[in-house]
Amino acid sequence: LISSATKSLRMETEILEKKLQDAQMKLAEKDGDKEKEIQSLKRLISELEFQLNMEKNNSESFLDKLRKEIKHKSDELEKLTQERTQLIHSLSQVQEENSLLQDTVRRECQERRELTAALGRAREQVLELRKLGGSLP
């Protein structure tokens, strides 16, 4: 009876050891699969971090370019505004000078008409004097 029980226990022990070995092999396989998946995820994370850094650098570079362009456009606008102000001032001066010249031309034309009229009267007086002078000895 003892021998039979011992034999039965040994067989049960062998079966349990075999089941244990099978379970350990399955566990080792699952651990291997999980390790592969972990490594794959780590690689994916590294790639995504690299892409994120590249995008961040590209964005910063793009922002720097935009800032420079905005600065350039702002400077250009300031320059054009100053030129516009200067041109408006110059136009005002030219208009004032033009007005003065028109006044001067108007006065000179008036003087010319007056001088022409005076010259006409003087000619008439000279002609009259010649007539009178022609009759005088």
TrEMBL record:
The keyword Coiled coil applies. Keywords: Coiled coil. Residues 6-132 form a coiled coil. This is LEKR1 protein. It comes from Atrichornis clamosus. The gene is Lekr1.
